[in-house]
Specification:
Length: 320
């Protein structure tokens, strides 16, 4: 209660020349009196009783020209640094490390060619450059706002942010869930979409509720993101099963069991061919990358998903 986090700017234009020439001035923690003077200009009549913790730091905005040079890589703050607007620095660094980590492991273990490592710079540097640019511009406008710009920030922006579509877009941008990696130069890692309107390669996988069939416990509903939250790669194989009036009467799960039987497979050779292709693809992927049971951090998990009458997973959307 009555505790606040205060972020402000220490102006360098002080009158005492000795202070300006003293390098330690810029690293000393702000005093209560100094903060009181600054706050008083913005909120007249306010009083600071005590400063529990204070620190002074300089703000930098820059991004490396390359994240990879021969066998050397940089990530996190070594690759990009920017103002703390939005507090995205830690997330960007973690994403850098994750993107580079699995590729290094795969190449070192002989599971991929060294050219895979080139995609680290291709995918992550544009993200770093974008974060540096937008946080720098936003921070500059926020700090130096005057006149109608300052008035708009106080009176117009709150109304704009209250619009649901704007709020969702801003939330996705700030949480970095809207990042999309571009197609690889040779399309070996991120390819191109062949289905109009479908989720694009390189986008964050949408969430969806799936019915997982368990022989002992029956059908359990799980989220797709729960299944993907492992240290392994995951391959999703989707097979579309056409819905009919008969399937609606028996229920999708019961009807699916009959459809996968040998008799029904002969009736619907399309489903049989799709399943056969899924098995061949699964075997080929397992042979190339291994299976998770042999190592806690390598291998590919194979998820066979049946969709009822639709060509792809339907993302779950929560509206409030």
């Amino acid at each position: 209660k009555n505790r606040w986090r205060l972020i402000t700017i220490r102006r360098t234009g002080v009158s005492d020349g000795e202070i300006v020439l003293d390098p330690s001035y810029y690293t000393k923690a702000p005093t209560r009196e100094e903060l009181q003077t600054l706050v008083q200009k913005v909120v007249p009549g306010s009083l600071i009783d005590e400063v529990l913790w204070g620190s002074c730091y300089s703000i930098n905005s820059r991004c490396a020209a390359a994240f990879k040079h021969h066998n050397a890589f940089i990530a996190g703050d070594a690759a990009h640094i920017h103002p703390p607007l939005g507090h995205q620095g830690m997330n960007v660094g973690i994403q850098d490390a994750h993107n580079l980590g699995w590729k290094l492991a795969l190449v070192v273990n002989g599971g991929a060619m060294s050219s895979l490592l080139d995609t680290y710079d291709q995918e992550r540097r544009p993200v770093g450059e974008s974060i540096v640019y937008y946080t720098s511009v936003g921070y500059k406008e926020l700090i130096e706002a005057k006149g109608w710009v300052k008035w708009s920030m106080k009176n117009v922006l709150p109304m704009v942010f209250s619009i649901n579509a704007v709020n969702r877009a801003l939330s996705h941008s700030m949480s970095m869930t809207s990042i999309r990696y571009p197609p690889s130069l040779d399309e070996t890692l991120v390819g191109r979409s062949h289905i109009p309107g479908a989720i694009q390669p390189g986008q964050r996988a949408p969430d969806a509720y799936l019915g997982m069939i368990n022989e002992k416990r029956g059908t359990e509903f799980v989220r797709l993101h729960q299944l993907l939250a492992t240290p392994h790669s995951s391959l999703l194989l989707l097979v579309r099963v056409p819905m009919t009036g008969e399937s609606e009467q028996k229920g999708f799960i019961g009807w699916l069991g009959e459809m996968l039987g040998a008799h029904q497979a002969r009736k619907d050779p399309g489903v049989a061919r799709a399943l056969e292709s899924a098995v061949h693809l699964s075997a080929d992927v397992s042979r190339r990358t291994g299976v998770p049971s042999r190592s806690p951090h390598t291998g590919t998990r194979l998820l066979l998903i049946f969709t009822a009458g639709k060509a792809s997973i339907v993302p779950s959307v929560t509206r409030r």
